[in-house]
Amino acid sequence: MNETKNIGVIVGSLRKDSINRKVAHGLIAMAPASLRLEIVEIGDLPLYNQDFDDGSPASYVAFRQKISSMDGVLFVTPEHNRSMPAAMKNAVDIGSRPYSKSVWNAKPGAVISASPSLQGGFGANHHLRQSLMCLNVYCMANPETYLSQADKLFDPAGELTDIGQGLLKKFIDAYAEWMTGW
Ligand code: FNR
Q1: 23-74, pLDDT tens digit by residue?
Q2: Cα 155 to averaged position of ligand 1 atoms, centre (Å)
Q3: Is 144 in a helix, a strand, or coil?
Q4: Protein residue closest via CA to atom 18 of ligand 1
Q5: Where in 3-151 does DSSP place strands (E)?
């Protein structure tokens, strides 16, 4: 019997009508049975401060424990000024510390970006990958998925269009396949 892998999903947008959150929910809904996806919230994490490495806030501790418990990590990110949003970077930094205690180490992961623009969050996607490389997150290389004009992947009721479903299905199936190696 195949083992189900628990995957932490980190969404880089904090706004309630976030396209990226809808993308995350789409991925959760269409993930194959081999994956159990769960959003790990980052909106309440105070800005990272190295002074907190000794005696971290409870929210840091809970976040680190949650990520530690996961078999893999999936990052769903918007682009802010050609990079990842501050909330996403903050979560990455909090998980990476205290030094030598990073909870990201050796996790198999993947990055997907979504934007209403034509570039699909390419800059954010690759800035995030750069940080994940240094943290030893094994990032799935392909399919590279930069969802451009991502607002149009949902109908007025907020449901994924056929094109949107196809793009997300291709991505999550590839990630499920990637996860079989870990
Ligand atoms: C943006 N947006 C944006 N889009 C983009 O494709 N490249 C960019 O560099 C930026 N920069 C940027 C900066 C800031 C501060 C904001 C608030 C927005 C637009 C962004 O893609 C759009 O607001 C998305 O809807 C954000 O994703 P969510 O919140 O819908 O998931």
Answers
A1: 999 999 999 999 999 999 999 999 999 999 999 999 999 999 999 999 999 9
A2: 20
A3: coil
A4: 80
A5: 5-11, 35-39, 72-77, 108-114, 138-139, 146-147
